[in-house]
Design a protein that fits this description.
The structure is a single chain. It is built from five helices and 15 strands. It is of the alpha/beta class. The strands form three sheets. Strands 3-6-9-12-14-15 form a six-stranded mixed β-sheet. A five-stranded parallel β-sheet has the order 1-4-7-10-13. α2 packs antiparallel against α4 and α4 packs antiparallel against α5. The two termini are 21 Å apart.
Length: 239
C-alpha cells in the first residue's frame, strides 16, 4: 500500500486537502475588517448575508444534481430533509461562534433533529455543497470537520470513541462518499475522494482515493487505470 502524507492537525480544524475546509479562524478573519462606521458595518453585514444565501443556493443545486429522483428545485427545497438539516446547521453554526448564542444554537439543532431525523452538532464545521441523501439517522459530532462536495447516506455517523474533551470526531476531505449505515469514529482522517462502504466501521485513517469496507474497515485501492470519480453508483456494492 502506498503511503499517503497526512496533513497536520494542530487545532482540530485543519483541512485534509483540496479546495479547503472552512475553519473558525478563516471565518473570523478577512480583508474586510469593519472600519467602525455604521455604513461600513452595514456593508459588511449585507456582504455576509449574500455569501450565506449563495452557500444555501449551492446546497440546493448540489442536492438536485446528485439525486436522480429530484424533479425540480421547488421539490428539493420543500421535501428534502437532508437539505433542510444542512440549511439549519449553517445558521446554528453561525450562532455557535457567538458564546452568548450557544444555547439557542443547540436548541435549534435539536429542533432540526426532531424535524429531519438528522443530528448535526452546531459546533461541527461543514464545507460547501454537502448532500445528505434520505437523511434519517445521520449523526455528525461536535468536532467533526467535513470538506466540500461530500455525500452522506442515511444512517452514516461521524462520531467519537472517547468521552474526553478535545478533537474526538473525524476530519473528512473533499469529494468523499460515506455509505449507508457506515460509522467513522474518532479523530481519523478521510482523504479526498475516498469512499466508505455501506455499514463499514472506520477506526483508522483512509488515504485519498481509497475505499474502506468491512468491520473493522480495511482499505482497498482502486486500480491505477480507473481514476477516482466524484460520484458513486452504489456504495452498497462495497460491502
Amino acid at each position: 500500500m502506498t503511503s499517503t502524507t497526512r496533513p497536520p492537525r494542530t487545532d482540530g480544524t485543519s483541512r485534509p486537502g483540496g479546495r479547503g475546509v472552512p475553519t473558525p479562524a478563516r471565518a473570523a478573519s478577512g480583508p474586510r475588517a469593519a472600519a467602525g462606521s455604521p455604513g461600513a458595518a452595514a456593508g459588511e453585514h449585507w456582504r455576509s448575508l449574500r455569501r450565506f444565501a449563495r452557500t444555501l443556493r449551492e446546497d440546493l443545486e448540489a442536492a438536485q444534481r446528485r439525486d436522480p429522483a429530484a424533479r425540480s428545485r421547488v421539490e428539493v427545497a420543500l421535501a428534502y430533509p437532508g437539505l433542510h438539516a444542512v440549511w439549519v446547521h449553517r445558521l446554528a453554526h453561525r450562532m455557535w461562534r457567538e458564546p452568548a448564542l450557544r444555547l439557542p444554537a443547540r436548541l435549534l439543532s435539536q429542533l432540526s433533529r426532531a424535524a429531519t431525523g438528522v443530528e448535526i452538532h452546531p459546533g461541527a464545521t461543514i464545507g460547501r455543497r454537502l448532500f445528505i441523501d434520505h437523511g434519517m439517522g445521520v449523526v455528525v459530532g461536535e468536532t467533526a470537520v467535513v470538506g466540500d462536495d461530500v455525500v452522506l447516506f442515511h444512517g452514516a455517523t461521524l462520531g467519537g470513541k472517547t468521552m474526553k474533551r478535545g478533537k474526538r470526531h473525524p476530519t473528512v476531505g473533499n469529494d468523499v462518499v460515506v455509505g449507508a449505515g457506515a460509522k467513522v469514529l474518532g479523530p481519523v482522517w478521510i482523504g479526498d475522494g475516498a469512499q466508505v462502504g455501506a455499514n463499514a466501521v472506520v477506526l483508522k485513517d483512509v488515504p485519498a482515493g481509497a475505499v474502506a469496507v468491512g468491520v473493522p474497515a480495511t482499505i482497498r485501492r482502486r486500480p491505477a487505470s480507473s481514476p477516482p470519480e466524484p460520484e458513486v453508483d452504489d456504495p452498497a456494492i462495497y460491502i
